[in-house]
Write a structure and sequence with these properties.
single chain; alpha/beta; Rossmann fold; 2 domains; 15 helices
Amino acid sequence: MKILSVVGARPQFIKVKPIDVAFRRRRIKHVMVHTGQHYDYRMSKVFFDQLCIRHPDYNLAVGSGAHGAQTACMLERLEKVLLKCKPDMVIVYGDTNSTLAGALAAAKLHVPVAHVEAGLRSFNRAMPEEINRVLTDHAADLLFCPTKTAVDNLKKEGITKGVYLSGDVMFDVFRESLPLLSKRTILSRLNLVSRSYFLLTVHRQENTANIGNLKMILSALASSKETVVFPVHPRTSKVLKQIKGLKSDEFADFRLIEPVSYLDMLVLEKNAKKIFTDSGGVQKEAFWLGVPCVTLRDETEWIETLMRGENVLAGTDKKKIISAALSRSKNKLKFPVKPAYSSARRIVSCVFDFFK
């Protein structure tokens, strides 16, 4: 049996790690293909190095570009790899262009497709990620859902065959990484004290393609007068240079830093007073760490994080962001109880059983 995984962005590098380990434990041939959607060291190689992920067997070096051009380039290059490797199944992860390209390339060649993190829905078709999720799920033969809500979403769309409640593979990596955080020095390097700062991340198209949205987010957080640590995504960095009318003294408390590694990001999240983000992964990590989170979107795929008030939706509404920044958490947040089983082992077992 030969399984091929397609990854291309930093969340997918994290997700593929426990899957790769689980396949190797079963002595199943696992080929990893990196599309190159995220390509610089800060967004790509550092994750492989720090998390001790086996380096990809293929790197397609697609790079950035418009959605259509990038996806088309991935399709062309992935097809060549699939014809050469002849895998028994292709696994795709999450909701990026690499996810959709991997699913389409495999489906066109009649290779079974498995989707890790299936069934998530924002119900906002203006999001490129939502289109990628829906199309991938309808092309997939095995659908591994991280939550019961995701299973229910698929059922509403008529997808019930090959659907499994697998749990979240990102939690596998998160749990294994916690003991390593005490050795990280990023707080001292940035001269930060625990619970003395807000943490901000912004990368989604809805907030970076719309300069007004990004400016509103920054202005709202500046009003809080809190220290704001802001690891700047390369896409966001380009937009920041285009924003006019921002007074430097108004943003004196902002600490703009380059993107950080997975472990350093967990340290920043764990010690933050509050987290402001448009990232699904960061929302989950804040939830797992028991740190209050404000989501800079009008909806979230991870509705479980909203149920106890650990996460609130503010969108880009300045008043809502300011209110969330100034509010105190009503409940003392506790680390949520999570399944003890390994999601990755569950997924690999289901893949193995598919070919029985």
